[in-house]
Amino acid sequence: MEKELLIIFMIVSVIPWSFSATVSSAKKKEPPIKDCTRDVKNKSEMCHNTTQIPVQLVNQTVTAKPKLAEFQIDAHKTISISKDDLNDLLDVYMDKLAENAATIHDKENEIINLQSRNKSDEDQLKKYQEQLETCQIQNTTLTSTLSARDEQIKGLLLKTSIYETRLKRKQNLLALHKKQNASNAAAINELKARVKVLAYKLRERKDDLLADWEAATNSCLPHNKISGIHLMQLPDFRPFLVACEGNGWTVIQRRMDGSVNFYRNWNEYRNGFGKLNGEFFIGLEKLHRLTAFQPHELFVSLRLFNGSHRVAFYDDFIIGNETEGYELKLLGNFHGNASDAMRTHDKMKFSTYDRDHDEFTHINCAEYHHGAWWYDFCSRSNLNGKYFKTQTDNEQGIFWDQWYSFKSLKSVQMLIRPKNVKI
Ligand SMILES: *[C@@H]1O[C@H](CO)[C@@H](O)[C@H](O)[C@H]1NC(C)=O
Ligand SMILES: *[C@@H]1O[C@H](CO)[C@@H](O)[C@H](O)[C@H]1NC(C)=O
Ligand SMILES: *[C@@H]1O[C@H](CO)[C@@H](O)[C@H](O)[C@H]1NC(C)=O
Ligand SMILES: *[C@@H]1O[C@H](CO)[C@@H](O)[C@H](O)[C@H]1NC(C)=O
Ligand SMILES: *[C@@H]1O[C@H](CO)[C@@H](O)[C@H](O)[C@H]1NC(C)=O
Ligand SMILES: *[C@@H]1O[C@H](CO)[C@@H](O)[C@H](O)[C@H]1NC(C)=O
Ligand SMILES: *[C@@H]1O[C@H](CO)[C@@H](O)[C@H](O)[C@H]1NC(C)=O
Ligand SMILES: *[C@@H]1O[C@H](CO)[C@@H](O)[C@H](O)[C@H]1NC(C)=O
Ligand SMILES: *[C@@H]1O[C@H](CO)[C@@H](O)[C@H](O)[C@H]1NC(C)=O
Questions:
Q1: CA dihedral in degrees (321, 327, 331, 336; nearest 10)?
Q2: CB of 419 within 8 A of CB of 315?
Q3: Ligand 4, closest atom to CA 115?
Q4: Which of 58, 162, 355, 389 would staple 53 via disulfide (CB 3.0–4.6 Å)?
Q5: CB-based burial of residue 326 (10 Å sphere; 0-12 exposed, 13-18 middle, 19+ buried)?
Q6: Which neighbouring-strand residues pair with 397?
Q7: How far is the centre of ligand 1, averaged over its atoms, from the C-alpha of 37 (Å)?
Q8: 271: confidence class by pLDDT, cuts 50, 70, 90
Q9: Whose C-alpha lies nearest to ligand 5, atom 1?
Q10: Is the CB of residue 304 below 6 angstroms from any atom belonging to ligand 7?
Q11: Which letter does DSSP use for residue 389 in this model?
Q12: Which is nearest to 268 in space by CA: 280, 254, 278?
């Protein structure tokens, strides 16, 4: 722009110079050309004289019709321009002037336009401001709602954390339970397996017992080849197990190691006690039933601590019922290499410490001999006495002697079997 202005200025400063030359020759009272030129520089003011051309016009004129004004310089160095030429020039300028006026008008319209637009912009701005206010109000309510929500969320988060803690605890508990459950399941499985084995064994045993039951006998005679425990059945009596030795002998009493206490009361001697594969007494009621059912013989086997073995046989043996005090009703003939130490007890009732059937009125023989027997005054044999681990001379011990010798025995067995039987 500065360049343009500079060019304009140069042209303008040349042209009026030529005019002023003519003017100065015609009218010397006119203001100096230079003043006008200076005025032209001020855009806001136009020259009054027609020869003083507005900047814009000058620039255009000069470019549009460079040849329009031809002037001659004469010998007096005056520049002459024909009036026609000037008129033409003026016409051109006037046209331009009109054109520019129109342009100005357009610009004015444009400004009005812009102002109206400014107004509508202002309206819009107002609207926007109103909207902004509404928005701010909404923002405030929303902000408060938001903060309330924040509080709620905080509360919920707290609850969630509490629940999470609880959940974790529950999960730990569950894991523990699962672990326990697993170990329990293992234990249960083991027990199941054991139950299976036991059930199998039980079935086997039951089969054995059933077989025994079918083959239940009233003596050990059918089992004469091997010793063992078998079921025995007698009329009107509950079946019971007995220990059978070889040759059809039924063991009714056994002492061998002192593992079973034999100092017992009447009821226990009636029912029997101990272990069939160890020390035991068969029981007086069974003894009564067996010997009442069929004639039996008695065999007593005695072993001393020095290894000496002696035997005593009686070819009859009957025990009475409980009303009769399990009396030794019949003993029969004796034979064997031991003494006949049973003879003195023939026809005697059985005595225990709580059921005194002996011949003494002032002595409880069962107490005195620490046993239970068919005591009379009191005894020459005491096979249910106290067990001593070594040979002991003691009236409470297990002894078998005709002459009141109380040397204790190492082991004894009493056996019975139906008599007059060929094995
Ligand atoms: C232009 O004209 C105005 C008003 O007539 C005047 O105030 C101003 O000083 C002038 N500017 C110059 C540079 O002559
Ligand atoms: C312009 O100047 C010329 C020559 O000096 C003069 O004749 C004319 O009257 C002037 N025009 C006006 C409008 O002042
Ligand atoms: C003046 O003339 C120059 C060169 O011809 C041109 O570039 C410029 O735009 C003109 N200025 C005006 C205001 O017309
Ligand atoms: C637009 O309007 C504002 C406020 O009324 C005013 O200040 C400003 O001069 C106007 N602008 C135009 C270009 O009219
Ligand atoms: C909305 O409100 C919040 C809190 O009062 C403020 O920080 C924010 O600048 C507001 N936003 C507007 C668009 O007003
Ligand atoms: C516990 O064990 C049983 C059997 O193994 C299974 O059925 C049950 O689902 C288990 N319970 C848990 C809580 O693990
Ligand atoms: C064992 O002792 C008894 C009685 O004291 C005796 O008669 C017997 O000869 C002894 N036997 C042995 C093998 O010592
Ligand atoms: C007593 O008789 C039994 C059986 O016949 C026999 O085994 C034992 O050796 C005999 N004892 C003595 C000391 O003769
Ligand atoms: C015991 O035996 C006797 C003699 O045989 C008899 O009179 C009595 O009724 C029997 N008692 C019982 C309970 O069987």
A1: 110
A2: yes
A3: 14
A4: 58
A5: buried
A6: 386
A7: 12
A8: very high
A9: 139
A10: yes
A11: S
A12: 280
Tokens for 59?
């620039």
Count how many residues are written for the chain.
Answer: 423
Task: Report whether 325 contacts 313 (CB < 8 A).
Answer: no
- Atom 8, ligand 2: residue with shortest CA distance: 49
Query: How far, in Å, CA of 126 to CA of 91, rounded?
Result: 52
277 φ/ψ angles, rounded to the nearest 5 degrees: -95, 10
What does the alpha-carbon distance between residue 85 and residue 169 come to, in Å, rounded to a whole number? 114
Q: Which ligand is nearest to the CA of 138?
A: 5
Lowest mean pLDDT among 13-17, 69-73, 394-398: 13-17
ω into 36 cis (within 30 of 0):
no
Ligand 5: which of 135, 139, 146 to mutate, judged by most atoms within 8 Å of the beta carbon? 139
Q: 131: CA distance to ligand 5 center in Å? A: 14
Say how many Å lie between the CA of residue 248 and the centre of ligand 2: 183
CA atoms within 13 A on the CB side of 264: 17
Nearest CA to ligand 9 atom 8: 323
Taken in order of first residue, the domains within the chain and their CATH numbers are 228-418 (3.90.215.10)
Cα–Cα distance, 368 to 383 (Å, whole number): 14
- CA nearest neighbour of 19 among 78, 76, 61: 78
For ligand 4, is residue 113 a contact (CB within 6 Å)? no
39 CA: nearest ligand 1 atom? 14
pLDDT, one tens digit per residue, over 81-94 is: 778 888 888 999 99
Residue (of 237, 245, 254, 253) closest to 220 by Cα position: 245
- Residue 330, pLDDT above cutoff 70: yes
Report which bound ligand comes closest to the CA of 21.
2
Which contiguous run of DSSP H or E holds residue 414?
strand 411-418
Tokens describing residue 87 = 């008129």
Helix pair 55-64, 83-214: axis angle to 10 deg: 100
pLDDT at 11 over 70: no
Beta partners for residue 311, in sequence order: 301
pTM (two decimals): 0.50
Ligand 3 atom at minimum distance from 60 CA: 14
Instruction: Specify the residue with its C-alpha closest to ligand 5, atom 13.
Output: 136
Q: How far apart are CA 60 and CA 45, in angstroms?
A: 18
Average pLDDT, the chain: 83
Q: Whose CA is nearest to atom 7 of ligand 8?
A: 309
In short, whether 236's Cβ falls inside 6 Å of ligand 9 is no
